[in-house]
Please model this.
Amino acid sequence: MRFETSPHLRMSQQTKLAPRMIQAMEILQLPAQELRERIEQELEENPALELAELDDDQREQDSESDDDIAKSGTDDSSPVGSSDAATRDERGERDARDERERPLEIAEDGASFEKAREFERSYGEDDDRDNRDDGPRTRRTADEGAGDRKIEAMANTPDRAETLVDSLVRQWRLAEVPEHMALVGRHLIAYADDDGLLGADLATIAEQSHDASGGPFTIEQLESALPVAQAFLEPPGILARDRRECLLIQIGARLAGVLDAPDPADVPAWRDADLLLREHYDDLLGNRVPHIVETGKITAERIAHAKAALRRLTLSPGSDLSAQRERHIFPDVIVEYDPEKDEYTPLLADGAVPSLRIAEQYRQMVKDRRADKATRQYLSERLRNANWLIDAVEQRQATLLRVVTAVISRQREWFDFGPEHLRPLPMGEVADQLGVHVATVSRAVSGKWLSTPRGLIELRRFFSGGVETRDGDSMSFEAIRTLVKEIVEAEDRSKPLSDQAIAENLIERGVKIARRTVVKYRDQLGIPAAKLRKVHV
Model:
Protein backbone atom coordinates (compact mmCIF):
# COMPACT_ATOMS: atom_id res chain seq x y z
CA MET A 1 0.00 0.00 0.00
CA ARG A 2 1.49 3.31 -1.07
CA PHE A 3 0.46 6.91 -0.39
CA GLU A 4 1.17 9.64 -2.89
CA THR A 5 0.65 13.39 -2.83
CA SER A 6 0.29 15.62 -5.86
CA PRO A 7 -0.69 19.27 -6.35
CA HIS A 8 -3.88 20.06 -8.23
CA LEU A 9 -6.25 23.01 -8.75
CA ARG A 10 -9.90 22.99 -7.90
CA MET A 11 -12.55 25.68 -8.37
CA SER A 12 -15.43 25.89 -5.91
CA GLN A 13 -17.96 28.41 -4.65
CA GLN A 14 -18.39 29.00 -0.95
CA THR A 15 -20.78 31.28 0.86
CA LYS A 16 -19.32 33.06 3.87
CA LEU A 17 -20.85 35.72 6.04
CA ALA A 18 -18.93 38.94 6.32
CA PRO A 19 -17.98 40.05 9.85
CA ARG A 20 -20.24 43.06 9.48
CA MET A 21 -23.25 40.86 8.70
CA ILE A 22 -22.47 38.51 11.58
CA GLN A 23 -22.33 41.47 13.95
CA ALA A 24 -25.66 42.79 12.60
CA MET A 25 -27.34 39.44 13.25
CA GLU A 26 -25.93 39.28 16.77
CA ILE A 27 -27.10 42.81 17.58
CA LEU A 28 -30.57 42.10 16.17
CA GLN A 29 -31.00 39.10 18.47
CA LEU A 30 -29.93 40.85 21.68
CA PRO A 31 -32.65 42.06 24.10
CA ALA A 32 -32.48 45.61 25.41
CA GLN A 33 -30.51 44.87 28.59
CA GLU A 34 -27.96 42.65 26.87
CA LEU A 35 -27.56 45.20 24.09
CA ARG A 36 -26.84 47.92 26.65
CA GLU A 37 -24.12 45.72 28.16
CA ARG A 38 -22.69 45.08 24.70
CA ILE A 39 -22.64 48.81 23.95
CA GLU A 40 -20.98 49.59 27.28
CA GLN A 41 -18.30 47.05 26.47
CA GLU A 42 -17.75 48.58 23.04
CA LEU A 43 -17.52 52.06 24.56
CA GLU A 44 -14.75 50.87 26.86
CA GLU A 45 -12.82 49.11 24.11
CA ASN A 46 -13.33 51.50 21.19
CA PRO A 47 -12.13 55.08 21.74
CA ALA A 48 -13.76 56.26 18.50
CA LEU A 49 -17.23 55.51 19.88
CA GLU A 50 -19.09 57.76 22.27
CA LEU A 51 -22.59 58.36 23.56
CA ALA A 52 -24.61 60.93 21.65
CA GLU A 53 -25.87 62.50 24.86
CA LEU A 54 -25.19 66.01 26.04
CA ASP A 55 -24.22 66.80 29.58
CA ASP A 56 -26.27 69.24 31.65
CA ASP A 57 -23.98 72.23 31.03
CA GLN A 58 -23.93 71.68 27.30
CA ARG A 59 -27.69 71.16 27.27
CA GLU A 60 -28.19 74.48 29.10
CA GLN A 61 -25.85 76.22 26.65
CA ASP A 62 -27.72 74.74 23.72
CA SER A 63 -31.02 75.80 25.25
CA GLU A 64 -29.76 79.35 25.75
CA SER A 65 -28.39 79.38 22.22
CA ASP A 66 -31.72 78.21 20.85
CA ASP A 67 -33.51 80.98 22.75
CA ASP A 68 -31.06 83.56 21.44
CA ILE A 69 -31.49 82.32 17.90
CA ALA A 70 -35.25 82.53 18.28
CA LYS A 71 -35.04 86.09 19.59
CA SER A 72 -32.67 87.21 16.89
CA GLY A 73 -34.86 85.59 14.26
CA THR A 74 -37.85 87.72 15.31
CA ASP A 75 -35.85 90.96 15.08
CA ASP A 76 -32.91 90.93 12.69
CA SER A 77 -32.07 94.57 13.43
CA SER A 78 -31.53 93.94 17.14
CA PRO A 79 -27.91 94.74 18.03
CA VAL A 80 -28.05 92.35 20.99
CA GLY A 81 -29.03 89.49 18.77
CA SER A 82 -26.23 90.32 16.33
CA SER A 83 -23.69 90.50 19.15
CA ASP A 84 -24.81 87.16 20.55
CA ALA A 85 -24.64 85.58 17.11
CA ALA A 86 -21.12 86.93 16.60
CA THR A 87 -20.08 85.66 20.00
CA ARG A 88 -21.43 82.22 19.18
CA ASP A 89 -19.59 82.22 15.86
CA GLU A 90 -16.32 83.17 17.54
CA ARG A 91 -16.77 80.49 20.20
CA GLY A 92 -17.62 77.91 17.57
CA GLU A 93 -14.52 78.79 15.53
CA ARG A 94 -12.35 78.67 18.65
CA ASP A 95 -13.70 75.24 19.66
CA ALA A 96 -13.25 73.92 16.14
CA ARG A 97 -9.69 75.22 16.09
CA ASP A 98 -9.01 73.56 19.43
CA GLU A 99 -10.38 70.28 18.14
CA ARG A 100 -8.07 70.45 15.14
CA GLU A 101 -5.01 71.59 17.07
CA ARG A 102 -5.16 69.09 19.92
CA PRO A 103 -4.58 66.02 17.73
CA LEU A 104 -1.96 67.89 15.76
CA GLU A 105 -0.07 68.71 18.93
CA ILE A 106 0.11 65.05 19.80
CA ALA A 107 1.17 64.12 16.30
CA GLU A 108 3.89 66.78 16.19
CA ASP A 109 5.30 65.48 19.49
CA GLY A 110 6.00 62.13 17.86
CA ALA A 111 2.50 60.66 18.13
CA SER A 112 2.53 56.91 18.18
CA PHE A 113 0.24 54.04 18.83
CA GLU A 114 0.62 54.40 22.59
CA LYS A 115 0.10 58.15 22.50
CA ALA A 116 -3.18 57.63 20.70
CA ARG A 117 -4.26 55.38 23.52
CA GLU A 118 -3.12 57.94 26.08
CA PHE A 119 -5.04 60.62 24.23
CA GLU A 120 -8.11 58.42 24.35
CA ARG A 121 -7.85 57.96 28.11
CA SER A 122 -7.04 61.51 29.05
CA TYR A 123 -8.98 63.60 26.52
CA GLY A 124 -11.65 65.75 27.94
CA GLU A 125 -10.96 65.03 31.62
CA ASP A 126 -10.69 68.05 33.89
CA ASP A 127 -10.93 70.26 30.83
CA ASP A 128 -12.94 73.47 30.81
CA ARG A 129 -12.61 75.20 27.48
CA ASP A 130 -14.35 78.41 28.44
CA ASN A 131 -12.20 79.04 31.56
CA ARG A 132 -8.81 77.52 30.69
CA ASP A 133 -5.49 79.35 30.84
CA ASP A 134 -3.04 79.74 28.00
CA GLY A 135 -0.50 77.78 30.01
CA PRO A 136 -0.04 74.05 29.94
CA ARG A 137 -2.98 72.00 31.16
CA THR A 138 -2.65 69.47 33.95
CA ARG A 139 -4.03 66.07 33.06
CA ARG A 140 -4.25 62.87 35.01
CA THR A 141 -1.80 60.27 33.93
CA ALA A 142 -2.90 57.20 32.07
CA ASP A 143 -2.20 55.02 35.09
CA GLU A 144 -4.36 57.18 37.35
CA GLY A 145 -7.21 57.12 34.86
CA ALA A 146 -6.97 53.37 34.48
CA GLY A 147 -6.90 52.99 38.25
CA ASP A 148 -10.00 55.12 38.67
CA ARG A 149 -11.87 53.08 36.11
CA LYS A 150 -10.87 49.85 37.81
CA ILE A 151 -12.03 51.15 41.19
CA GLU A 152 -15.31 52.31 39.69
CA ALA A 153 -15.84 48.95 38.00
CA MET A 154 -15.12 47.11 41.24
CA ALA A 155 -17.54 49.35 43.11
CA ASN A 156 -20.28 48.72 40.58
CA THR A 157 -19.71 44.93 40.50
CA PRO A 158 -22.35 43.09 42.57
CA ASP A 159 -21.10 41.00 45.44
CA ARG A 160 -20.94 37.25 44.98
CA ALA A 161 -24.29 35.79 45.91
CA GLU A 162 -24.29 33.59 49.00
CA THR A 163 -25.27 30.04 48.16
CA LEU A 164 -27.72 27.97 50.17
CA VAL A 165 -24.94 25.75 51.56
CA ASP A 166 -22.90 28.83 52.60
CA SER A 167 -25.89 30.24 54.46
CA LEU A 168 -26.57 26.95 56.26
CA VAL A 169 -22.89 26.52 57.20
CA ARG A 170 -22.88 30.05 58.61
CA GLN A 171 -25.88 29.14 60.80
CA TRP A 172 -24.43 25.79 61.84
CA ARG A 173 -21.25 27.42 63.17
CA LEU A 174 -23.38 28.99 65.90
CA ALA A 175 -24.78 25.66 67.08
CA GLU A 176 -23.56 24.60 70.52
CA VAL A 177 -22.97 20.93 69.77
CA PRO A 178 -20.02 18.57 70.32
CA GLU A 179 -17.19 18.96 67.86
CA HIS A 180 -17.75 15.60 66.18
CA MET A 181 -21.47 16.27 65.72
CA ALA A 182 -20.59 19.65 64.22
CA LEU A 183 -18.49 17.85 61.60
CA VAL A 184 -21.32 15.40 60.89
CA GLY A 185 -23.79 18.25 60.49
CA ARG A 186 -21.40 20.08 58.17
CA HIS A 187 -21.22 16.96 56.01
CA LEU A 188 -25.03 16.69 55.92
CA ILE A 189 -25.37 20.33 54.87
CA ALA A 190 -23.16 19.65 51.86
CA TYR A 191 -25.95 17.39 50.50
CA ALA A 192 -28.68 20.04 50.64
CA ASP A 193 -30.36 20.54 47.24
CA ASP A 194 -31.74 23.78 45.84
CA ASP A 195 -35.01 23.34 47.78
CA GLY A 196 -33.15 22.84 51.06
CA LEU A 197 -33.99 19.13 51.30
CA LEU A 198 -31.48 16.35 51.77
CA GLY A 199 -30.37 15.33 48.30
CA ALA A 200 -29.35 11.72 49.14
CA ASP A 201 -30.27 8.97 51.59
CA LEU A 202 -28.22 8.48 54.74
CA ALA A 203 -26.64 5.25 53.47
CA THR A 204 -25.23 7.02 50.44
CA ILE A 205 -24.03 9.95 52.53
CA ALA A 206 -22.27 7.54 54.90
CA GLU A 207 -20.57 5.73 52.02
CA GLN A 208 -19.25 9.00 50.63
CA SER A 209 -17.94 10.33 53.95
CA HIS A 210 -14.47 8.77 53.82
CA ASP A 211 -12.85 11.95 52.54
CA ALA A 212 -14.93 14.25 54.76
CA SER A 213 -13.35 16.16 57.62
CA GLY A 214 -13.64 13.93 60.69
CA GLY A 215 -15.00 11.04 58.61
CA PRO A 216 -15.91 8.42 57.85
CA PHE A 217 -19.34 8.67 59.51
CA THR A 218 -21.70 5.84 60.28
CA ILE A 219 -25.41 5.82 59.56
CA GLU A 220 -26.08 5.93 63.32
CA GLN A 221 -24.00 9.10 63.64
CA LEU A 222 -25.87 10.69 60.74
CA GLU A 223 -29.25 9.70 62.20
CA SER A 224 -28.20 11.22 65.53
CA ALA A 225 -27.02 14.54 64.05
CA LEU A 226 -29.79 15.00 61.48
CA PRO A 227 -32.66 15.87 63.93
CA VAL A 228 -30.36 18.30 65.73
CA ALA A 229 -29.50 20.07 62.48
CA GLN A 230 -33.15 20.10 61.38
CA ALA A 231 -34.20 21.68 64.67
CA PHE A 232 -31.43 24.29 64.67
CA LEU A 233 -31.33 25.43 61.04
CA GLU A 234 -33.83 27.96 59.76
CA PRO A 235 -36.30 28.13 58.17
CA PRO A 236 -37.96 24.95 59.47
CA GLY A 237 -37.96 22.10 56.98
CA ILE A 238 -34.28 22.37 56.04
CA LEU A 239 -32.51 19.02 55.51
CA ALA A 240 -35.78 17.07 55.48
CA ARG A 241 -35.44 13.68 53.80
CA ASP A 242 -38.65 14.06 51.75
CA ARG A 243 -41.62 16.37 51.26
CA ARG A 244 -43.62 14.68 53.93
CA GLU A 245 -40.95 15.15 56.59
CA CYS A 246 -40.48 18.76 55.42
CA LEU A 247 -44.14 19.54 56.09
CA LEU A 248 -44.12 17.72 59.42
CA ILE A 249 -41.11 19.74 60.61
CA GLN A 250 -42.84 22.99 59.69
CA ILE A 251 -46.05 21.95 61.46
CA GLY A 252 -44.08 21.00 64.57
CA ALA A 253 -42.32 24.39 64.51
CA ARG A 254 -45.67 26.20 64.29
CA LEU A 255 -47.24 24.21 67.11
CA ALA A 256 -44.15 24.79 69.27
CA GLY A 257 -44.22 28.51 68.53
CA VAL A 258 -40.73 28.53 67.03
CA LEU A 259 -41.70 30.96 64.28
CA ASP A 260 -44.45 32.83 66.10
CA ALA A 261 -47.18 32.08 68.60
CA PRO A 262 -49.89 30.08 66.76
CA ASP A 263 -53.41 31.38 66.67
CA PRO A 264 -55.46 29.25 69.10
CA ALA A 265 -58.14 28.90 66.44
CA ASP A 266 -55.60 27.34 64.04
CA VAL A 267 -54.18 24.79 66.47
CA PRO A 268 -56.81 22.11 65.72
CA ALA A 269 -56.24 22.49 61.99
CA TRP A 270 -52.46 22.09 62.41
CA ARG A 271 -52.95 18.98 64.57
CA ASP A 272 -55.29 17.49 61.96
CA ALA A 273 -52.75 18.29 59.25
CA ASP A 274 -50.09 16.47 61.29
CA LEU A 275 -52.42 13.47 61.61
CA LEU A 276 -53.15 13.40 57.87
CA LEU A 277 -49.47 13.47 56.97
CA ARG A 278 -48.56 10.70 59.40
CA GLU A 279 -51.44 8.27 58.87
CA HIS A 280 -53.17 9.19 55.57
CA TYR A 281 -50.42 10.62 53.38
CA ASP A 282 -51.12 8.54 50.25
CA ASP A 283 -54.88 9.14 50.47
CA LEU A 284 -54.22 12.83 50.97
CA LEU A 285 -52.10 12.99 47.80
CA GLY A 286 -54.84 11.22 45.85
CA ASN A 287 -57.55 13.48 47.33
CA ARG A 288 -59.40 10.40 48.58
CA VAL A 289 -61.21 12.28 51.31
CA PRO A 290 -64.19 9.85 51.66
CA HIS A 291 -61.77 7.00 52.30
CA ILE A 292 -60.00 9.04 54.98
CA VAL A 293 -63.33 9.83 56.63
CA GLU A 294 -64.29 6.15 56.62
CA THR A 295 -61.02 4.87 58.07
CA GLY A 296 -60.14 7.73 60.41
CA LYS A 297 -61.86 9.67 63.18
CA ILE A 298 -61.97 12.92 61.27
CA THR A 299 -64.69 14.71 59.35
CA ALA A 300 -64.57 16.13 55.83
CA GLU A 301 -64.86 19.65 57.23
CA ARG A 302 -61.82 19.15 59.45
CA ILE A 303 -59.92 17.72 56.50
CA ALA A 304 -60.77 20.84 54.48
CA HIS A 305 -59.40 23.09 57.25
CA ALA A 306 -56.27 20.96 57.53
CA LYS A 307 -55.66 21.15 53.77
CA ALA A 308 -56.08 24.93 53.92
CA ALA A 309 -53.43 25.02 56.66
CA LEU A 310 -51.07 22.86 54.59
CA ARG A 311 -51.30 25.31 51.70
CA ARG A 312 -49.64 27.89 53.95
CA LEU A 313 -46.48 25.77 54.14
CA THR A 314 -43.70 25.47 51.59
CA LEU A 315 -42.17 22.47 49.88
CA SER A 316 -38.91 24.33 49.23
CA PRO A 317 -37.76 26.03 52.45
CA GLY A 318 -34.32 26.61 50.95
CA SER A 319 -35.68 29.03 48.38
CA ASP A 320 -35.76 31.77 51.02
CA LEU A 321 -32.02 31.38 51.60
CA SER A 322 -30.74 30.86 48.08
CA ALA A 323 -29.76 34.24 46.63
CA GLN A 324 -31.53 34.06 43.28
CA ARG A 325 -31.32 37.34 41.46
CA GLU A 326 -34.57 38.53 39.98
CA ARG A 327 -34.63 38.93 36.26
CA HIS A 328 -35.71 42.44 35.43
CA ILE A 329 -37.62 42.93 32.21
CA PHE A 330 -36.80 45.95 30.09
CA PRO A 331 -39.31 46.47 27.27
CA ASP A 332 -37.79 47.21 23.89
CA VAL A 333 -40.95 48.74 22.42
CA ILE A 334 -43.84 50.64 23.98
CA VAL A 335 -47.22 50.31 22.27
CA GLU A 336 -49.49 53.29 22.89
CA TYR A 337 -53.15 53.66 22.00
CA ASP A 338 -54.47 56.85 20.42
CA PRO A 339 -58.24 57.05 21.09
CA GLU A 340 -58.74 59.90 18.60
CA LYS A 341 -57.22 57.96 15.70
CA ASP A 342 -58.26 54.56 17.13
CA GLU A 343 -54.87 53.04 16.41
CA TYR A 344 -51.93 51.54 18.25
CA THR A 345 -48.51 53.06 17.70
CA PRO A 346 -45.20 51.33 18.52
CA LEU A 347 -42.41 53.47 19.91
CA LEU A 348 -38.90 52.52 20.91
CA ALA A 349 -38.53 52.61 24.67
CA ASP A 350 -36.69 55.74 25.79
CA GLY A 351 -33.31 54.90 27.25
CA ALA A 352 -33.57 51.20 26.38
CA VAL A 353 -30.71 51.52 23.91
CA PRO A 354 -28.35 54.52 24.14
CA SER A 355 -27.60 56.60 21.06
CA LEU A 356 -24.10 56.40 19.66
CA ARG A 357 -21.92 58.57 17.47
CA ILE A 358 -18.38 58.80 16.19
CA ALA A 359 -15.96 60.89 18.23
CA GLU A 360 -15.13 63.86 16.03
CA GLN A 361 -11.57 64.26 17.31
CA TYR A 362 -10.66 60.77 16.12
CA ARG A 363 -12.27 61.38 12.77
CA GLN A 364 -9.99 64.41 12.37
CA MET A 365 -6.93 62.47 13.49
CA VAL A 366 -7.46 59.89 10.74
CA LYS A 367 -7.49 62.66 8.14
CA ASP A 368 -4.31 64.24 9.48
CA ARG A 369 -1.47 63.24 7.16
CA ARG A 370 1.15 64.32 9.69
CA ALA A 371 0.19 61.52 12.10
CA ASP A 372 2.27 58.37 11.82
CA LYS A 373 0.95 55.37 9.92
CA ALA A 374 0.46 53.10 12.94
CA THR A 375 -1.74 55.63 14.69
CA ARG A 376 -3.85 56.26 11.62
CA GLN A 377 -4.22 52.55 10.93
CA TYR A 378 -5.31 51.89 14.50
CA LEU A 379 -7.85 54.71 14.46
CA SER A 380 -9.14 53.70 11.02
CA GLU A 381 -9.92 50.25 12.31
CA ARG A 382 -11.64 51.68 15.40
CA LEU A 383 -13.71 54.05 13.25
CA ARG A 384 -14.75 51.22 10.96
CA ASN A 385 -15.86 49.06 13.87
CA ALA A 386 -17.73 51.98 15.40
CA ASN A 387 -19.58 52.64 12.15
CA TRP A 388 -20.49 48.97 11.87
CA LEU A 389 -21.88 48.95 15.40
CA ILE A 390 -23.90 52.14 14.88
CA ASP A 391 -25.35 50.79 11.63
CA ALA A 392 -26.17 47.44 13.27
CA VAL A 393 -27.99 49.13 16.17
CA GLU A 394 -29.95 51.40 13.84
CA GLN A 395 -30.87 48.45 11.64
CA ARG A 396 -31.99 46.51 14.71
CA GLN A 397 -34.23 49.32 15.87
CA ALA A 398 -35.78 49.77 12.43
CA THR A 399 -36.38 46.04 11.94
CA LEU A 400 -37.88 45.68 15.41
CA LEU A 401 -40.33 48.52 14.77
CA ARG A 402 -41.34 47.02 11.43
CA VAL A 403 -41.99 43.63 13.01
CA VAL A 404 -44.02 45.13 15.88
CA THR A 405 -46.05 47.20 13.42
CA ALA A 406 -46.87 44.05 11.46
CA VAL A 407 -47.83 42.24 14.67
CA ILE A 408 -50.17 45.05 15.73
CA SER A 409 -51.94 44.99 12.37
CA ARG A 410 -52.41 41.20 12.52
CA GLN A 411 -53.23 40.95 16.23
CA ARG A 412 -55.47 43.99 16.59
CA GLU A 413 -58.18 41.92 18.29
CA TRP A 414 -55.75 40.89 21.02
CA PHE A 415 -55.01 44.53 21.82
CA ASP A 416 -58.72 45.37 21.79
CA PHE A 417 -60.32 42.38 23.54
CA GLY A 418 -57.66 40.29 25.28
CA PRO A 419 -55.66 37.04 25.13
CA GLU A 420 -58.59 34.84 24.08
CA HIS A 421 -58.65 36.68 20.73
CA LEU A 422 -55.05 35.92 19.81
CA ARG A 423 -54.88 34.74 16.20
CA PRO A 424 -52.43 32.28 14.62
CA LEU A 425 -49.46 34.12 13.17
CA PRO A 426 -46.58 32.19 11.59
CA MET A 427 -43.29 34.04 11.36
CA GLY A 428 -43.15 33.23 7.66
CA GLU A 429 -46.15 35.46 6.95
CA VAL A 430 -44.55 38.43 8.69
CA ALA A 431 -41.28 37.73 6.87
CA ASP A 432 -43.07 37.72 3.50
CA GLN A 433 -44.89 40.93 4.39
CA LEU A 434 -41.65 42.71 5.32
CA GLY A 435 -39.60 41.17 2.54
CA VAL A 436 -37.01 39.61 4.86
CA HIS A 437 -35.92 36.11 5.73
CA VAL A 438 -37.89 34.25 8.40
CA ALA A 439 -34.65 33.93 10.43
CA THR A 440 -34.52 37.73 10.62
CA VAL A 441 -38.00 37.84 12.15
CA SER A 442 -37.03 35.08 14.57
CA ARG A 443 -33.96 37.03 15.72
CA ALA A 444 -35.96 40.25 15.97
CA VAL A 445 -38.54 38.76 18.37
CA SER A 446 -36.08 36.69 20.42
CA GLY A 447 -36.12 37.86 24.04
CA LYS A 448 -37.96 41.10 23.21
CA TRP A 449 -40.79 42.46 25.35
CA LEU A 450 -43.57 44.91 24.61
CA SER A 451 -45.15 47.34 27.02
CA THR A 452 -48.81 47.45 25.98
CA PRO A 453 -52.03 48.81 27.49
CA ARG A 454 -52.63 45.21 28.59
CA GLY A 455 -49.28 44.96 30.38
CA LEU A 456 -45.89 43.52 29.55
CA ILE A 457 -45.92 40.66 27.07
CA GLU A 458 -43.17 38.76 25.30
CA LEU A 459 -43.14 39.50 21.61
CA ARG A 460 -42.74 35.83 20.69
CA ARG A 461 -46.13 35.01 22.23
CA PHE A 462 -47.83 36.70 19.30
CA PHE A 463 -46.37 34.07 16.97
CA SER A 464 -48.07 30.70 17.27
CA GLY A 465 -50.03 28.16 15.30
CA GLY A 466 -53.72 27.54 15.69
CA VAL A 467 -56.83 25.75 14.56
CA GLU A 468 -59.83 26.74 12.49
CA THR A 469 -63.04 27.35 14.41
CA ARG A 470 -66.53 26.31 13.47
CA ASP A 471 -67.27 29.79 12.13
CA GLY A 472 -64.43 29.51 9.64
CA ASP A 473 -62.21 31.79 11.72
CA SER A 474 -58.91 30.75 13.29
CA MET A 475 -57.77 30.68 16.92
CA SER A 476 -54.21 30.38 18.20
CA PHE A 477 -53.06 27.71 20.59
CA GLU A 478 -52.35 30.40 23.19
CA ALA A 479 -55.97 31.55 23.00
CA ILE A 480 -57.17 27.94 23.38
CA ARG A 481 -55.05 27.55 26.51
CA THR A 482 -56.66 30.72 27.85
CA LEU A 483 -60.11 29.23 27.21
CA VAL A 484 -59.15 26.00 29.00
CA LYS A 485 -58.06 28.02 32.03
CA GLU A 486 -61.32 30.02 32.02
CA ILE A 487 -63.42 26.84 31.81
CA VAL A 488 -61.61 25.25 34.76
CA GLU A 489 -61.84 28.40 36.88
CA ALA A 490 -65.61 28.60 36.27
CA GLU A 491 -66.34 24.94 37.08
CA ASP A 492 -68.13 23.63 40.16
CA ARG A 493 -65.32 22.31 42.34
CA SER A 494 -67.64 19.77 43.95
CA LYS A 495 -68.13 18.32 40.44
CA PRO A 496 -64.99 19.23 38.46
CA LEU A 497 -65.00 18.77 34.71
CA SER A 498 -63.13 15.87 33.20
CA ASP A 499 -60.76 16.37 30.29
CA GLN A 500 -63.41 15.04 27.92
CA ALA A 501 -65.98 17.46 29.35
CA ILE A 502 -63.56 20.35 28.80
CA ALA A 503 -63.05 19.24 25.19
CA GLU A 504 -66.82 19.13 24.66
CA ASN A 505 -67.15 22.59 26.20
CA LEU A 506 -64.58 23.88 23.70
CA ILE A 507 -66.51 22.27 20.85
CA GLU A 508 -69.60 24.19 21.96
CA ARG A 509 -67.52 27.36 21.63
CA GLY A 510 -66.52 26.39 18.10
CA VAL A 511 -63.05 24.98 18.89
CA LYS A 512 -62.59 21.29 18.12
CA ILE A 513 -59.59 19.66 19.79
CA ALA A 514 -58.96 16.15 21.11
CA ARG A 515 -59.06 15.15 24.77
CA ARG A 516 -55.32 14.43 24.79
CA THR A 517 -54.73 17.99 23.61
CA VAL A 518 -56.75 19.24 26.58
CA VAL A 519 -54.54 17.13 28.86
CA LYS A 520 -51.43 18.67 27.31
CA TYR A 521 -52.71 22.24 27.72
CA ARG A 522 -53.85 21.51 31.28
CA ASP A 523 -50.39 20.23 32.19
CA GLN A 524 -48.78 23.30 30.61
CA LEU A 525 -51.02 25.54 32.72
CA GLY A 526 -50.23 23.60 35.91
CA ILE A 527 -53.86 22.52 36.41
CA PRO A 528 -54.24 19.16 38.21
CA ALA A 529 -56.57 16.41 37.09
CA ALA A 530 -60.28 16.45 37.95
CA LYS A 531 -60.01 14.05 40.89
CA LEU A 532 -57.37 16.28 42.48
CA ARG A 533 -59.45 19.42 41.92
CA LYS A 534 -62.52 17.97 43.58
CA VAL A 535 -63.59 19.64 46.82
CA HIS A 536 -65.36 17.31 49.27
CA VAL A 537 -67.98 19.01 51.42
Q: What stands out?
A: The radius of gyration is 35 Å. The first helix runs from residue 19 to 29.
